[in-house]
Amino acid sequence: MITLEVQKDCFVGFKGERFRFYLSDEGYRNAKHSEQEGEIRRKSHAAVVAGKLYPDKKPRQQKR
Q1: For residue 64, is it within any domain?
Q2: Is the dihedral of CA 32, 34, 21, 24 positive or negative?
Q3: Domain-located, residue 40
Q4: For every residue of 28-64, which 3-state class applies, written as one string?
Q5: pLDDT digit string (tens) for 14-34?
Q6: What is the domain extent for residue 40?
Q7: What pLDDT sits at residue 49?
C-alpha cells in the first residue's frame, strides 16, 4: 500500500491530488518509476500481509 501525492498532471491524476493504492509488486515498481520521473511523490509505504499493514516507519510513541 502506498499513499502518494501527484506532482504534475499525468495518468494518475491532477497536480495536488492525493491517493492511497494497494499495489502488486509490478504496480509498486511502476509507482517507483513514476516517482523517479517526477510525476508522483510517495508520502508513505506499508507492506500488506494477510490483511495486516506493516509500515516502513515505526509510529512515534507518545511521551508520558
Answers
A1: no
A2: negative
A3: yes
A4: HHHHHHHHHCCCEEEEEEEEEECCEEEECCCCCCCCC
A5: 999 999 998 888 998 999 999
A6: 2-55
A7: 82
